[in-house]
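Postdoc handover notes: sequence design on the structure in folder B. Input tokens:
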């Protein structure tokens, strides 16, 4: 066990103490070493090496408004990202004012100055080589499978709430051959190997972001910039007390990347937190643009609570109206598939998790909880790993009853919009975009009537319709999947489908998380923990869990983690609420979010990660900007002590 050389106490993970690792590789408690160097001592107490970089001289843990802030982590001077920033012109800041001049210079009233799109679908008809590439990329089709709850029901039996599982898997990405690396060390790939994106990042630069938080944000943004291609376009919006577009929607060519990095380098922290203004400005970039790439998204990061829109004078009950933060044009119900998802990132212990979750849920995005501040780059990497691999758009799943006496009882699809029409004989699920290799599972229930007329019954047929993001053409599955069951005179011991069972466990777990969160918000943490424990026992008794199913094992690990984070009110307020909301976001959309140690390769909680996401996170964890050397893998430092919950 490692001990701090200053206080001689252990430095075991999970004890609530931040760890500082110096450039000479020796480690100390953060609060011990900051005390040691506060008078300018830059000599390692162990090896006597002279340090070029000393830790930020601030308390390792600050308690603000009853919340524990996670410590900052120092960036070493030999960090290649720091080297990149040194090469860029320094930001121009008006130090005589409370807010930097960045927010006080004029900007255009209409953001129609987006750079022309290099990717033009209409020019593809006369390009044979490009058509070949499109054909390769469009060759894959959605893999559609169905699973009835059981394979047979007696002719004499009536079966209520019979479950049918619809399983979808998106086609995989065709990975082109590497043709070299650019001057920053990033892979260069063919121009049209995937559809390009329009990405707007809305970044909190309020006073609480000062110091290493802002440095880590800049490094994470550097990673995003270096991994966007020349057909992708990026715009950067920064907000504190007000908001400003600091970089227009430009293509990430070599010049575009350099200019974007310079814009990131110009960011400085000051002022309050006006999330609504930041989102309004980000939405304006999207709505004012003259042209659009096939994929569009917004990434919002904040470490605090909105000090303007949610607490404005005279706004009765506005504290609970979190949807007010998001412009109406960006709400998911504002038009069929016309919304732009906002993927939100709550940074540290003091962010407003409820607000960030609400913004994501309302827009169709995901909410990630960045508990350890040095994991921000991995969280961004996971998000863009998905955005840069969209292979299906505007996916609509249609379910139609075949047997004349059947009706659909329910469609369980999480946050996806569902509908039942034609006397409940036809149902639909609006899925939208899918990333490469991404999977979706939906449960449909119906009542199976007595039927003595045949030995087989056709229940429903499933059809998928979607848009190919490359060709822009609508694609319909070659044939509708038909679900049938046998109707013998008698049946023996029937075995429930393993696939149906584990998806029931997933839905049951998500419902337990929501119920536990409601109890916790009502002040009854004991009831919340009890709900989760009951769900874990149900999981343990299920067929799929007993068979060692990986999804069920991961669900149990996640439920246990939530129990630990509901151990007392302080832990729940500090990290439990955000962790649970991020989990709910992930399960409701069946899409990966970052929370706790979910981006670590050894974590059990890695639900819904796609190969593209894993690859991008791996790049983040092994490569630094402009350098091929590996980065030390970082596991998040929790802001609460680990407390095992007995089974």
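Designed sequence:
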């Amino acid at each position: 066990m490692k001990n701090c050389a200053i206080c001689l106490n252990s430095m075991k993970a999970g004890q609530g103490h931040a760890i500082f690792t110096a450039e000479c590789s020796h480690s100390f408690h953060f609060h011990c070493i900051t005390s040691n160097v506060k008078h300018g001592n830059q000599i390692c107490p162990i090896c006597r090496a002279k340090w070029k970089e000393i830790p930020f001289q601030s308390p390792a843990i600050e308690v603000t408004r009853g919340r524990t802030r996670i410590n900052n982590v120092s960036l070493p001077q030999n960090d290649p990202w720091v080297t990149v920033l040194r090469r860029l012109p320094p930001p121009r800041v008006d130090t005589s004012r409370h807010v930097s001049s960045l927010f006080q210079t004029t900007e255009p009233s209409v953001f129609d100055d987006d750079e022309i799109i290099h990717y033009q679908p209409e020019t593809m008809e006369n390009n044979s080589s490009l058509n070949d590439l499109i054909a390769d990329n469009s060759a894959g089709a959605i893999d559609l499978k169905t699973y009835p709850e059981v394979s047979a029901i007696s002719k004499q039996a009536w079966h209520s709430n019979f479950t049918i599982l619809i399983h979808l898997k998106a086609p995989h990405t065709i990975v082109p051959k590497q043709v070299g690396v650019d001057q920053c060390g990033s892979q260069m790939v063919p121009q049209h190997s995937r559809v390009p994106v329009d990405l707007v990042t809305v970044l909190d630069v309020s006073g609480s972001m000062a110091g290493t938080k802002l440095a880590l944000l800049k490094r994470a943004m550097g990673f995003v910039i270096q991994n966007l291609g020349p057909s992708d376009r990026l715009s950067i919006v920064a907000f504190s007390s007000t908001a400003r577009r600091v970089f227009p929607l430009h293509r990430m060519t070599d010049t575009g990347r350099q200019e974007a990095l310079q814009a990131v380098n110009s960011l400085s922290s000051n002022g309050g937190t006006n999330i609504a203004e930041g989102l309004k400005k980000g939405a304006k970039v999207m709505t004012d643009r003259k042209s659009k790439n096939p994929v569009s998204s917004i990434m919002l990061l904040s470490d605090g609570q909105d000090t303007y829109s949610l607490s404005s004078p005279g706004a009765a009950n506005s504290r609970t109206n979190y949807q007010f933060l998001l412009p109406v044009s960006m709400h998911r119900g504002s038009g069929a598939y016309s919304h732009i998802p906002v993927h939100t990132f709550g940074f540290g212990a003091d962010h407003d998790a409820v607000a960030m979750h609400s913004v994501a849920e309302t827009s169709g995005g995901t909410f990630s909880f960045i508990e350890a501040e040095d994991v921000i780059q991995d969280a961004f990497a996971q998000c863009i790993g998905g955005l840069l691999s969209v292979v299906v758009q505007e996916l609509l799943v249609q379910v139609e009853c075949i047997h004349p006496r059947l009706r659909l009882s329910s469609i369980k699809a999480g946050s996806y919009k569902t509908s039942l029409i034609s006397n409940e004989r036809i149902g639909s699920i609006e899925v939208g975009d899918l990333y490469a290799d991404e999977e979706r599972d939906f449960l449909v229930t119906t009542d199976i009537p007595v039927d003595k007329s045949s030995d087989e019954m056709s229940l429903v047929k499933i059809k998928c319709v979607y848009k190919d993001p490359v060709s822009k053409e609508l694609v319909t599955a070659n044939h509708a999947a038909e679900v049938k069951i046998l109707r013998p005179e008698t049946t023996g011991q029937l075995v429930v489908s393993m696939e149906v069972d584990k998806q029931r466990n997933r839905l049951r777990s998500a419902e337990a998380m929501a119920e536990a969160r409601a109890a916790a918000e009502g002040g009854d943490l004991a009831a919340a923990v009890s709900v989760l424990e009951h769900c874990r026992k149900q999981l343990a008794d299920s067929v799929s869990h007993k068979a060692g199913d990986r999804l069920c094992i991961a669900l149990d690990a996640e439920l246990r983690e939530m129990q630990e984070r509901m151990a007392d009110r302080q832990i729940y307020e500090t990290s439990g609420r955000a962790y649970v909301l991020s989990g709910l976001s992930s399960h409701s959309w069946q899409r990966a979010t970052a929370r706790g140690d979910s981006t670590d390769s050894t974590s059990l909680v890695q639900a819904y990660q796609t190969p593209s996401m894993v690859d991008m996170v791996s790049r983040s964890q092994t490569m630094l900007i402009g350098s091929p050397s590996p980065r030390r893998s970082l596991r998040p430092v929790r802001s609460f002590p680990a407390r095992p919950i007995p089974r």
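Context for whoever picks this up: DSSP finds 14 helices and 20 strands in the chain. Don't rerun without checking with the PI first.
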